[in-house]
Amino acid sequence: MITNKMKLNEIVKAYPRAVDIFNDFHIDYCCGGNDSLEDALNQLSIDSKSFIDVLNKKLEKQTKEPVPTEVLDVDRLMKMEVPALIDYIIDTYHGKERILLSEIDALSNKVLLAHYAHHKDQLIPLHGLFSDLKKELEEHFAKEEKLVFPYMKQSYNQKSDKGYVKELEDEHDAAGNLIKDIIACTNDFTVPDGGCTSYHMLFQKLHELIKDIYNHIFTENSLLFSKYEGGH
Ligand SMILES: [Fe+2]
Ligand SMILES: [Fe+2]
């Protein structure tokens, strides 16, 4: 049973299916995972009592249905030790997101050229925001894979410098802010009238990337880093 004082990351750990509902309402459970549900709802001017009633009813109904494969398997991830969880993150999220980043990069350029005349007010800022996000994520993944994750793997059960965690969390916040701007710029991934198949594909892949990044950041901020800081 979810209550308004619970933190967003506690809710996702206990009810991974809440992620879909949080995404629909732009409730930031990844970078803002330590906020209470009440605070997050207040910030978005959503009435907390009716939202939580609906959320609990929806989740209660869903627990009787089979779990779809795209839902975060939090129970399994929480049982993993730091090295295994790091390997899982690289295999699952870094690999998939690198492919999506390069597909979206090509599509973004194609759509900018094709629809410049009628939609440049949307496509120019979107092209810039996506380029910034791609650059930040590529550099962030490299830092994790080549520097911080190897360090975490060998130091997780010893006394170690935890400063890297704060650096990565700050970089997640920066990516989270670019993502909020992308959502606003695309009107929540709503293709304008006259948008071609590539326009649809661009928004669909951007949406897919962003949902994946949310799960990715949640897995690092709320599962990996808390395990690492707890030394297990
Ligand atoms: Fe990562
Ligand atoms: Fe990260």
UniProtKB/TrEMBL annotation:
<keyword id="KW-0963">Cytoplasm</keyword>
<dbReference type="InterPro" id="IPR012312">
    <property type="entry name" value="Hemerythrin-like"/>
</dbReference>
<dbReference type="InterPro" id="IPR019903">
    <property type="entry name" value="RIC_family"/>
</dbReference>
<feature type="domain" description="Hemerythrin-like">
    <location>
        <begin position="87"/>
        <end position="227"/>
    </location>
</feature>
<dbReference type="GO" id="GO:0005737">
    <property type="term" value="C:cytoplasm"/>
</dbReference>
<protein>
    <submittedName>
        <fullName>Regulator of cell morphogenesis and NO signaling</fullName>
    </submittedName>
</protein>
<dbReference type="Pfam" id="PF04405">
    <property type="entry name" value="ScdA_N"/>
</dbReference>
<dbReference type="Pfam" id="PF01814">
    <property type="entry name" value="Hemerythrin"/>
</dbReference>
<keyword id="KW-0408">Iron</keyword>
<keyword id="KW-0479">Metal-binding</keyword>
<dbReference type="GO" id="GO:0046872">
    <property type="term" value="F:metal ion binding"/>
</dbReference>
<dbReference type="InterPro" id="IPR038062">
    <property type="entry name" value="ScdA-like_N_sf"/>
</dbReference>
